[in-house]
Amino acid sequence: MLGEQQVKDFYERGWFVLDGLFGPREIARARAAFERLYDAAQELRETQMHNGSFFVLDAPGAGPVVLKRVVWAGGAEPDLLALGADPRLLGPALQLLGAKTCEQLLCQAHFKMPHDGVSFDWHQDIQHRDKGPGTWTDRNGVGSYVQTILLIDDMTPDNGPLQFVPTPRMQEPAAAPAPPNAPLFRFSQNEAPFARAIAAEDAVTVTGKAGSVLVFGPYAVHGSAANISNQPRRVLINGYAYPGANGRVYPGEGAGRILPL
Ligand SMILES: O=C(O)CCC(=O)C(=O)O
Ligand SMILES: [Fe+2]
What pTM was computed for the model? Predict the structure, then answer.
């Protein structure tokens, strides 16, 4: 069971971290699965479905393939699928959702290899869940979605760590006026999106050891810069929706499964 402070951090600040949730042997297994996915991508060289997973990649010239993400990585790698159903992730997700079951929408592998240039602009995951009429309904009234990010490698200041803007800071007046291309944010389903520039000092950088897990909701504002270190920064993202919230079909064999079965 999550404590009061973790629940408060989730809803009021935007995120919390569960340190050391998975042990070194479990992470070594997961890392081996990531290595197999990475090696498979080098042979594929084009974005495609493969082995039940959807590989999104760039193949610049003859150099190594830049693997951006493997969507529903558990399709190709049973060990990753098993992690997605682990009670240490599912328990907190169900507690936060206030549900007995949920729909697992994401089991996604992110790589960020040294100097591969992969980065994520400031966003809220609601932008990836709600794609317009019929695609998303906030069924529990508090977001209906929980995202967990399991660190497969240590996440350090230099290898492209996740950064979050605390929700209260997002609700203060912005330091600078929003330029025309500023990202759009909102904090409930029916709110109109607003543009906002984000300054470096708004954000909190999250670092942590492999095996730790970051937990956040669909309105947490986050992003991550490129990996400028010599160490990979791989993470496994498992995302859980309140029953009936999602109206889309996600790619991957078995995506959208109902847990616990
Ligand atoms: O891998 C990253 O740094 C970004 C992940 C992310 O934005 C997400 O899981 O929602
Ligand atoms: Fe995200």
Answer: 0.98
Q: Whose CA is nearest to atom 9 of ligand 1?
A: 237
Query: Does residue 246 line the site of ligand 1, with CB under 6 A?
Result: no
Q: Which chain residues have CB less than 5 Å from ligand 2, an ion? A: 125
**Mind listing the pLDDT tens digit for each residue in 87-96?**
999 999 999 9
Q: Is 86 helix (H, G, I), strand (E, B) or coil?
A: coil
Name the closest-CA residue to atom 7, ligand 1.
223
Token pair, residue 30, equals 């997961």
CA–CA separation, 156 and 30 (whole Å): 19
Strands (DSSP E) along the chain, which ranges? 15-18, 48-50, 53-58, 66-71, 102-110, 120-123, 145-151, 162-165, 184-185, 194-195, 204-205, 213-216, 221-224, 235-241, 257-259
Per-position DSSP letters for 138-159, written without gaps between them = -SSSS-SEEEEEEESS-B-TTS
Residue 62 Cα to ligand 2 middle (Å) = 30
Atom 1 of ligand 1: nearest residue by CA position: 110
Per-residue pLDDT band for 62 (boundaries 50, 70, 90) equals confident
Geometric angle at alpha carbon 90, from 86 and 94, rounded to 5°: 165
